[in-house]
Write a structure and sequence with these properties.
single chain, mainly beta, 4-stranded antiparallel β-sheet, 30 strands, Lactonase family protein, Haem_d1_sf, Lactonase_7-beta_prop, Cycloisomerase_2
């Protein structure tokens, strides 16, 4: 369909509930339209679609699962679904254990030959080789974290919250909320193994959650869940150098809030972060010369507890998932200010937490 973008939405829910929704954004009329709903996976809290649009990958964020033999097994799962090129329907899923509880994030290398999963309660990041048929092979590499932070409720041990590959696909950066660190791993020269490379610390108690690269690949931004800040790093060949941190909340806000997602705009002019509690998207402008961040405003997500959100590839649209008000809301990006402007349309989706725009 011309004038349409494909949207995939992941949600919390039981295996027999709707946890994956396909929709379309009709750009000519700024409408969101549901086209299909799927279950057969529990708590599909993070989704990714490959570049060809032929396979959808999802984590099943659980502490245990039922394995292929019908037995109860510890940890969550990585699911992979083929997408029909004509109908865009999902085919039968393929499942792998993540060997850790509550997997909550996944990413692919730019060449889509490796997939990484972070296990929030499993203290680990898993790496899966991607086969020629686009299905993940069994997990072949596991990185276990050890450490803690000063927050007694949330940092009693490691909590890997995201795993992002560098733009060149040679490094894996794992944000660990429990350790206040970004752990960095490197691919060997043959591309078949990954080993520990470096680590960089955040402020004690910050709770790093998600990471986004600048389109240039020369900077990375980390959203810190526990102290509601965004930290800028310069980046070069597997080395992060910490720069400034800015609050995601306005000075006048005095309630409880925590951060969830961070995204850099495709044109490299803005960074966006979500606040759960303040229920907003915080916008930061990127200085063209120095790269420094400055606060550019806050916009309500028109719902409760915005989890993840996504920008369209052209940077013109933002779609936010409000987990606790069961809504997925469309915004148009104002090109000069970078601020999201409500586009007048939203979808009702139960407990949405992940959005992918193609």
């Amino acid at each position: 369909m011309t004038g349409a973008l494909e949207i995939w939405i992941g949600a919390y829910g039981a295996k027999n509930a709707v946890v994956i929704t396909r929709a379309e954004l009709l750009t000519d009329t700024a409408e969101l339209v549901k086209t299909a709903e799927y279950g057969n996976i529990e708590n599909a809290s993070y989704l990714r679609v490959n570049k060809r649009g032929t396979r959808l990958y999802a984590v099943s964020e659980t502490a245990e699962h039922i394995d292929a033999d019908g037995d109860k097994a510890e940890g969550g799962q990585l699911a992979s679904f083929p997408i029909d090129a004509e109908t865009r329907k999902l085919g039968p899923g393929q499942y792998h254990p993540t060997h850790g509880a509550h997997p909550c994030h996944l990413s692919l290398t730019p060449t889509e030959d490796w997939l990484a999963v972070s296990n929030y309660s499993g203290e680990s990041a898993m790496l899966y080789p991607i086969r020629e048929d686009e299905r993940p092979g069994p997990p072949s590499i596991r990185f276990r974290h050890t450490g803690s932070g000063p927050n007694p409720d949330r940092q009693q041990g490691p909590h890997p919250h995201s795993a992002n590959f560098s733009p060149d696909g040679q490094y894996l950066l794992v944000a660990d909320l429990g350790m206040d660190k970004i752990m960095i791993y490197v691919r060997d020269t043959e591309g078949s193994e990954w080993v520990a490379h470096d680590a960089v610390s955040l402020e004690p108690g910050a709770g790093p959650r998600h990471l986004a690269f600048h389109p240039s690949g020369k900077a990375a931004y980390v959203v810190n869940e526990l102290d509601s800040t965004v930290t800028r790093f310069t980046y070069d060949a597997g080395k992060l150098t910490r720069q400034e941190s800015l609050p995601t909340l306005p000075p006048s806000f005095a309630g409880e809030s925590s951060c969830a997602e961070i995204v850099a705009s495709p044109d490299g002019r803005f960074v966006y972060a979500s606040n759960r509690g303040h229920d907003s998207i915080a916008v930061f402008a990127i200085d063209e010369q120095s790269g420094k961040l400055s606060a550019a405003g806050h916009v309500s997500t028109r719902g409760k507890t915005p989890r993840n959100f996504a920008l369209s590839p052209d940077g013109q649209w933002l779609i936010a998932a409000n987990q606790d008000s069961n809504s997925v809301v469309l915004f148009r990006i104002e090109p000069q200010s970078g601020l999201p402007v409500y586009a007048g349309t939203e979808l009702t989706v139960a407990k949405p937490v992940s959005v992918v725009i193609r």
